[in-house]
Automatic annotation (TrEMBL):
Residues annotated for substrate binding in this entry: 19, 120, 164, 292, 406, 413-414
Assigned protein family: Belongs to the glycosyl hydrolase 1 family.
GO-annotated biological processes: cellulose catabolic process
EC number: 3.2.1.21
Protein known as: Beta-glucosidase
Record's keyword terms, sorted: Carbohydrate metabolism, Cellulose degradation, Glycosidase, Hydrolase, Polysaccharide degradation
An annotated GO cellular component: cytosol
Catalytic center residues: 165 (proton donor), 359 (nucleophile)
Reactions listed under catalytic activity: Hydrolysis of terminal, non-reducing beta-D-glucosyl residues with release of beta-D-glucose
Upper taxonomic lineage: Bacteria, Bacillati, Actinomycetota, Actinomycetes, Propionibacteriales
GO MF annotation, one: beta-glucosidase activity
Organism expressing this protein natively: Kribbella shirazensis
Amino acid sequence: MTNGFPSGFTWGAATASYQVEGAVASDGRGPSIWDTFAHTPGRIADGTNGDVADDHYHRFAEDIRLLADLGLNAYRFSIAWPRIVPTGSGAVNPAGLDFYRRLAETCLENGVTPYATLYHWDLPQPLEDAGGWLVRDTAERFRDYAAVTHDALSDVIKHWMTLNEPWCSAFLGYGSGEHAPGRTVGTEALKAVHHLLLGHGLALDAIRSDGAAYGIALNPAPIHAASDSPADRDAARRIDGLRNRLFLEPLLTGRYPADVLEDTGTTAWFAEREADLPLIGAPLDFVGVNYYCPTTVAAPDGLISAPGTSSQPGSENVVAVDTGLPETQMGWPIQASGLRDILVTINKLAPELPLYVTENGSAYPDVVTADGTVEDDERLDYLRRHVAVCKDLVSEGFPLKGYFAWSLLDNFEWAWGHSRRFGIVYVDYATQERIVKKSARWLRDFLA
């Protein structure tokens, strides 16, 4: 036991390819939707991009040794589809496969277990040009890419996740347009939901083999009604449906929630694709949960979003409510008990299924002090509170198997660029110097 956790519990930190790797034109990598999006004026808050990011492509060995020195025993990273299949389909790039082999082998040499995510949002641009996740062909091309990658790396990687946060890919990418590819197609974004989940199922069917574990990383969140009024409760039902049930139910129960399809006027479209549900709902070895905060919502107050520009299609006019909780720099309320709530919700759907916290963290405006340290006490407190929730669940016999802090490194934080820092390790983007923050030192001492 380590501070109340069993000896086999997984402790890790996570990153994502476009956020940390840089080297976007190196060794045959093709362009992704995030390369295009980040170079489009006005899309990124501070005007930066991921061309260099943390230069993890060249510094991964240093970063993995740093992770191991913190006492962590697992590294969750994502594989960039454009490095493996630069145009999204067709010719495979051996240099891309070689990079991830070296990365995984470096993990193993340092006593770190590699956990690979096959898709963390960097869709090859040619596939987006052909329709992106709004068309079925992209799911089939994802299967092909997953099979090639798994065949090449399955001897060194034994833990696989197909997708990261398909809610973001579908509803921020095709609903609100806040994320790449920046499209705003209203309820048509539910087609992206289905094709992402179909891609997951097709990939799982193509790569599953004995001796490895296969899952998916979702970002569910507790959704609360602002009051007990019928209108507010219905608003919560709608958002819970879009955020949680639209993904959890097909994956874990083999069906889509009928009320969500009715809310969005997509019942007939989904009915024509019921034959895909056995693939989507095939058994998983685990589910990863990326948890940051709960959401409280209320019925419309008359302020209705323009059609087609919302991350909650069909419920654009449901409003988020400030409950007065302390918030991170992202404006996200801090409530560690919400982690318990969402893990318990998933456990009720699939009682025996192992769960991991695959992301958990917070952004604050960190600064380097005169003595060269980063004293991020707020992040330390955030992590400590959420780790305590995990400890309680494990002590109760809950099937929670691991915890990954987000993120190992400060990085390119999507539409926020470099203006938001989530890392437990500070990165000076001008010099690429790494500085272990106080939160990471706490975690190291906790695990020692």
